[in-house]
Amino acid sequence: MTQGKQADTAGFTAAPAGGRWRAAFAFPNPVNEYAARITAGLVVLAAVATLVSGLGGGLVLIAAGFWLRVLFGPRISPFAVLSVKLLAPRVGPAKLVPGPPKRFAQGIGAALSTAAVVLFFAGFGLGAWILLALLIVAASLESFAGFCLGCAIFGFLQKHGLIPEDVCEACNNIALRRV
After folding, report:
1. Fewest Cβ atoms closer than 10 Å to its Cβ: which of 117, 138, 139, 172?
2. 19: pLDDT confidence band, cut at 50, 70 and 90?
3. Is residue 165 part of a domain?
4. Total structural domains in the chain?
5. Would you say the pTM of this structure is higher than 0.90?
6. Are 78 and 86 in contact (CB under 8 A)?
């Protein structure tokens, strides 16, 4: 066996720690607060357009965007790429904040939007639109007020020991820990 690689029980050689698979699913830490807020603003625009139009396809696109950001960070999500590469640099120098709470918040968005998709296509449109409205509120707080509701939940859970401190050591000193 070569150094840095391990054979699994099926006889295949696994990638070394930090290899391609880990890199594929990496999430930046820290993240640019301005890019996160701009991405949230784009989510608000898409969600309002979906709510007004009543088209379930918009729900699918919103959910897909959240899953792309949760799983792959900002590398392949169209909203995140637009925010990180084009729009946020125009705001000014990056304002860096811890990444794990932002990923957690994206996960909440993925769960809510996926539940909305399931409800919509199961014939429970009202439930889907209520979840989308909640998503609009949370994304609006992030985009327009700079308050990340998912990050506050992350801080609360970490403060109470439900998320280990080593997941985000930098979070131990930020204001959301007072929640």
Report:
1. 172
2. low
3. no
4. 1
5. no
6. no
